[in-house]
Amino acid sequence: MTAVPQTPPRRRDGFPGQRMHVLPRPLVEQALRTRPLSQLLVTDAGYFPRASTHGRARTHGAPQHIVIVCAAGRGTCTLPSGVHQVRAGQALVIPAGLPHRYEADAEEPWTIWWMHLVGQQVPDLLAATGATPDQPVVGLGDPAPVISLVDAILRRMERDETMASLLASSGAAWHALALLAADRRTIGRQQPDPVAATIEHLRANVSTRIPLADLAGMAGLSVSHYSARFRRATGYGALEYQTRLRMGTARELLDTTDRPVASVAAQVGFSDPLYFSRQFHRVHGMSPTEYRSHDKG
């Protein structure tokens, strides 16, 4: 009779090279009574390198929201919605109170940076990442900055547990969640996002005014569908987004060169300096000349 291989027991922690810090729960309660930390507080943070046999199950969920960033390897997370794969360059977001089980892959165990969060603003910040209980995994265009911020959180918590350190950790966590939201990538998409491709095209051609119909055609979408998706992605209409890109380049030229306003206008695609000045004033509340003379920095 052939013996059936036994699955190694799962471990919550205890991995070579790991780092982890958990705040005492009385300190958590105290911190949440202060106004800044009541909005967002990091209660736990850690780093598990190549965490073979790592796994954790919570049948009633965790009291905190959990964010896990996978730097290498892979793992899975089981939620009521099903089993979700987590790979390098992706983040797993688990809301507080949601039953779950997550574990490292047996052949390619993950390396993860993780944090537990509480606070009044955390649900809204997590919602901005696009993660949901049905799709809890989000892709990261560039995971390094997010990982660096979780490392900064952990280093600050390892340093001490003063209110100053808790506040610094909170600020870094807020920044990390903002990056997750701003730089997220849809998981499971077989083709590149056509709207994202047109946004990159606009950034690479700031001085060229591209009609809305042309952008929609590049994306293979109707004008109305493209416009709605573009606004969801950027918060602006496509034409206004182009204007703001051009004004951003104009600001840089005004700050770093002595070129005349007419020359700056031409550089960013405005043949009429007066029209450029009106658009600049609409966006910035002052003329290009006033902006250049205004104290900055």
Automatic annotation (TrEMBL):
CDD domains: cupin_MmsR-like_N. GO terms for molecular function: DNA-binding transcription factor activity; sequence-specific DNA binding. Pfam families: AraC_binding (PF02311), HTH_18 (PF12833). Gene3D superfamilies: Homeodomain-like, Regulatory protein AraC. Keywords: DNA-binding, Transcription, Transcription regulation. Residues 196-294 form the HTH araC/xylS-type domain. PANTHER family: ARAC FAMILY TRANSCRIPTIONAL REGULATOR, HTH-TYPE TRANSCRIPTIONAL ACTIVATOR RHAS-RELATED. This is AraC family transcriptional regulator.
